[in-house]
Amino acid sequence: MTGMRVAQLLEQGKPLEVTTIERPTPGPKDVLVKVEAACLVPNSINVITKGPGPYFTLPELPCVFGLDAAGVIEAVGENVVGLKAGDRVYVDPHISCGNCKQCRKGRKDLCTWGCLRAYFGNGTPEGKAILKQYPIGSLSQYLLSPDANIAVIPPSIDINTAARFGYIGTSYAGLKKCGMGPGKTLVINGVTGTLGYAAVAIALGFGCTKILGIGRNKERLAEIEGMATKGRIVVRSTEDEGDLTQWIKEQTNGLGPDGLYDCLGNGGDAGGTSKLISSLKRGGRVALAAGGVAGDITHSYGEVMEQDVSVNGTLWFTSEEIDEAIELIGAGVIDFSFLQHKFFSLDEVNDAFKAVGDRPGGAINIIVQPQA
């Protein structure tokens, strides 16, 4: 047996255990990747501690846990073309069936059978099927992936930044749903988190002329404001006094913003999101990203009709979108040089979870290095 070291989740809410299992062999359309960087994000804590919810199902335990990974191709299956050993790659963990109507039109993120490998599937019986096929997550020295989920990364992109592409891609897709581009104004609710920092960088790259960031931590808000020339990013703390919607109107010459990207973390209040939606200009677009907000969004039929506002959910991204993001990041159009990487070995995996659980802010990139 050729072994490899992995971090397994044996019981919900318990620390992961590092052990050795057999290294997998790629099937005809599989790619075996040597994992150099595995990214941990705050939602990782929620998944391993809180268990399944109404909208998602977890893999069977024990599970080799972990979401996003970047590394180098070790081997490819006999029917794989266009990829080869030695390629530097990002492994997209969202695996879909490939043949349903959504997949066939390029929306694999809407696949009924889709799942985030070794993380969670959607909350239907179908959501469990593919979880069983690819049970090894990123917290391992090697993992298997369908070749369709492999994105080659250029030399200009750091491998640790590539390991963050799950959350970067989610924000990229969200801002496209918001219709962002040159001359647009965007509100980001939850701006100091993992998705929020990514959204700021992407909005700047898209050419948004004004970004209004709402968050809690004033030190991080000041850091975000400094990511662009003075006045292009304006921030506000949730602890600030005064009416939030009035502040937004003042910042947008009374018109309201073009878009709202709401990526508020777990425990947020949907009532605040409702107020932000009401602040949009006519024809404004909304993308709801994080999924941890409590409560309902309530708007009158007449308001939605009159204002012609579009509200979208966004959970992940398409293959086309992550390819676009990689091109723009690789060319320096979208800049993620602000990321501060914090490294942990596989043996330190539970320390890494503690670090991400301490909510260090979206500029901190918690990386587990399985080869260290």
From TrEMBL:
MF terms in GO: metal ion binding; oxidoreductase activity
Segments traversing the membrane: none
Requisite cofactors: Zn(2+)
Metal-binding among keywords: yes
Occurrences of domain Enoyl reductase (ER) (ranges): 13-368
InterPro entries per the UniProt record, alphabetical: ADH-like_C, ADH-like_N, ER, GroES-like_sf, NAD(P)-bd_dom_sf
Protein name: Putative alcohol dehydrogenase protein
Organism: Botrytis fragariae
Phylogenetic placement of the source organism: Eukaryota, Fungi, Dikarya, Ascomycota, Pezizomycotina
